[in-house]
Amino acid sequence: MSTAFITSFLAAAPTTEIKVPIIWVLGGPGSGKGTQCEKIVAKYGFTHLSSGDLLRNEVKSGSPRGKELNEIMEKGELVPMDVVLDLIKEEMMKELPNSKGYLIDGYPREKEQGIAFEKKIGAVSVVLFFDAPDNVLVERLLGRAKTSGRVDDNEETIKKRLNTFNTHNDQVVQQYTEKLKKINAERDPEAIFAEVQTYLDPLVKC
């Protein structure tokens, strides 16, 4: 059975009801989302799904879709919504039997993605937004670029990515005000995680 067929089937098939918490993790590139997700996974045992990692893995696969995605990412543009959603949904279904909860890292990147996610997969429990000024994020990413080797870690592309993120993220924030938790991401990681726990502890105790 081809990968394309499986992906198409998963996108069209009704999703099994997800009864564990679903947490969206938002923040500009370099905001520390990955670090916080590692801490969350260590404490709560949630399944961490990074839209960026899923996309980069597809690029590394060398598939025709991966090559198209690489061109889009090099330009700092947004990947088509359906492609990202299919990748996330497929991974969530694989982990569903044993998952204690899901961390969806870097998604949704625009309001329409959030609406599509809740329609095709399930309702989000809480939205964590790690907020930091652009100049802080640029400095962090330029430092990472020295060792990462990632095509999207050069200054020009970084600024394009930040501009794209800010333009669309404002709409996401406004769409989910009741579930949004805006967190100052300039602080020490431990201080940030202490705040994160105040939002997640109630989800696992109910």
The number of helices is 9
- Major sheet details: 5 strands, parallel
Oligomerization state: single chain
Radius of gyration, rounded? Answer: 17 Å
Order of helices and strands: HEHEHHHEHEHHEH
Classify the beta-strand content into a percent band: 5-15%
Terminal CA distance: 41 Å
Explain what the structure shows.
The radius of gyration is 17 Å and the shape is globular. Helix 7 packs across helix 8. The chain has 206 residues and is an alpha/beta fold. The termini are far apart. 59% of the residues lie in helices and 12% in strands. The N terminus is likely disordered. It has a five-stranded parallel β-sheet with strand order 2-3-1-4-5, with helices on both faces.
Give structural attributes.
5-stranded parallel beta sheet; 206 residues; globular; 12% strand; disordered N terminus; alpha/beta; 5 strands; 59% helix
In a nutshell, what does this entry contain?
The chain is an alpha/beta fold and 206 residues long. It has 9 helices and 5 strands.
Task: Give the topology.
Layout: H1 3-12, E1 22-27, H2 33-44, E2 47-50, H3 51-60, H4 64-74, H5 81-95, E3 102-105, H6 111-120, E4 126-131, H7 134-148, H8 155-175, E5 180-184, H9 189-205
Parallel strand pairs: 1-3, 1-4, 2-3, 4-5
Helix pairs in contact: 1-5, 2-9, 3-4, 7-8
